[in-house]
Specification:
This protein is mainly β. It has one helix and eleven strands. A hairpin with a 2-residue loop joins β1 and β2.
Length: about 150
């Protein structure tokens, strides 16, 4: 039996050998063997917020730095050590990971708040005063301003 996959003919008889391996893991390794960490980053008027899923880690396993507008998250997820075991599946990621991301605004590095709750790392990076969004009032020159009477 055959099927088309990405415009290629795939033989279902070989499916387990070809596609039984996971196509992605939480840490996508680079040439040096260091994995990258998927994360979410968004900006509000007053802060930049970063969230990352780090299941199985504690706050002691993760190192955070902010320098020159770059946030770096790094750590290591240790492999499960089971003596005299023969693994049939080893799909959960392990090893070192690191992620550097340019922040979209200047932040106050000394006021960063980091929380770790049930494997979810949340960083709140307050913006500097110069980077905060400000509302600018517009004077309407077509309508004359009437001075309020002084009581």
């Amino acid at each position: 039996m055959y099927a088309f996959r990405r415009y290629k003919v795939v033989n279902y008889a070989r499916w387990p050998q070809m596609y039984d391996q996971p196509e992605s893991t939480a840490w996508r390794g680079d040439a040096a063997g260091v994995g990258t960490l998927p994360l979410d980053l968004y900006e509000t008027g007053d802060e930049v917020v970063v969230t990352a899923s780090l299941p199985g880690l504690t706050s002691e396993d993760v190192e955070l730095t902010v320098q020159g507008g770059i946030l770096r998250i790094q750590g290591e997820l240790k492999q499960q050590d089971v003596p005299d075991a023969q693994f049939h599946r080893l799909e959960r990621p392990f090893g070192c990971f690191a992620r550097e991301v340019a922040l979209p605004a200047n932040v106050q590095a000394d006021a960063v708040e980091a929380r770790f709750d049930n494997g979810i790392l949340t960083l709140r990076l307050p913006k500097t005063e110069a980077a905060k969004t400000r509302r600018i009032p517009i004077q309407d020159m077509a309508r004359p301003q009437i001075a309020e009477p002084v009581a």
